[in-house]
Give the backbone structure.
Amino acid sequence: MPLAKTRFTARLIEANGYDPNDFKCWVFCPGMLFEAPDKWWGDYGRRDFPHEGLDFCLYRDAADNLLRLDEGTQIPVMHGGRVRALFNDYLGEAVVIEHESIAALPGKSISIYAHTKPQDGIRPGVKVREGDIIATIAGTGRSKTNILPHLHLSFGRPSVDIVYEPFVWNQMRDPRRVTLKNPQGLVDWPCEVLGPKCQGIPLTSRETGAGG
């Protein structure tokens, strides 16, 4: 059963002061997609594991310019639920949210928002409503890979005996604990996938006008 689309992009546009008429589409390098085998940064080589989710970073404006999200971009939660865990990831922190039942997917599910800086008050046990701002995108200045700031989103079905303390990245990719699904079906906006590689594409930040 396909996942039901959310209002994630519409809420992100509103929260960050974008003009919805100037946000044409999300843009993904192949390496940003679910189960991608290759990186979209650094040496563009093979990943250690297939990509566990979807990376939100690039978009086109109405003039067809390729732009990127900034460090500090506010992130709205796609579905209401309860925060179950926070853990350090490679670029920031990840927020794990459990949902009791959402459209077209009965039973519990979880969404994981990674490479973020969680908002004050976001901690295990806290309830969040659809559209609440739970975090901002973390900076990547300390990374040696020259990767751009971005939001990693994973979505899946947890096992009945899942334990959230502690929860780390490796548990997300363990099929005994989480059955991952392609989160692209949740996206409420047009999407474009670029050619095989993203090297050499000028990436501009809307806020700073600086190259990526």
